[in-house]
Task: structure prediction
Amino acid sequence: MSDKSLEPQEMWAQMKKNSDGLVPAITQDYETGDVLMMAYMNEESFILTLETGYMHYYSRSRNSLWKKGETSGHFQKVISSFIDCDRDTLLFKIDQTGAACHTGNRTCFFTELKDLGSL
Amino acid sequence: MSDKSLEPQEMWAQMKKNSDGLVPAITQDYETGDVLMMAYMNEESFILTLETGYMHYYSRSRNSLWKKGETSGHFQKVISSFIDCDRDTLLFKIDQTGAACHTGNRTCFFTELKDLGSL
Result:
């Protein structure tokens, strides 16, 4: 980071949080441009992501911090990171080890709506 | 849509909603792969998007339905649409007329975190 960069805590303070106090983070394959997944960050996961260079999320269902790849080995190394114009969504361009999706698919967005069947 | 496709109302019923009853929708330029924006859909905007082939959103701040490009002319034509593995996020590959961002930038994600300054 350059000398002018804000600290991660200061960046977090400038973001608009959703009703759960979280910020959605989109990951995109930095080489292919494929959108891989979307998950949520709390302050701790955001700071850890910037400090370690690897994607960390906050699991709403498990109510806990989560380093992507911790159990699967499918880590996501941050290449570059962006915030949108109204500062309520993050975009990370990443180097994905293995599959982003827990199903084994490269991306979580592997189902076209037209192919969506009944549950 | 093929004969096997669900109706938009049935698709909506199968999605997990966030705490506000909405589903986040990511748009991606179908040619360049650039992630353009992320906004939210309610049932009405989701159905209108599928029925008209143009992106509609729900504005949380204005509490109203919103057709993208209605005032700016910067419409977003849907090319293909996807849902993620846990059915709580949508991805639309679109043909963007003009700029996606109200600032005039092509994408809303034009600010790198390292360049984020104090407010």
Summary: Chain B touches chain A through 47 residues (CB under 8 Å). Chain B is about 15% helix and 35% strand. The longest helix of chain B spans residues 43-52. Chain B has a mean pLDDT of 94.
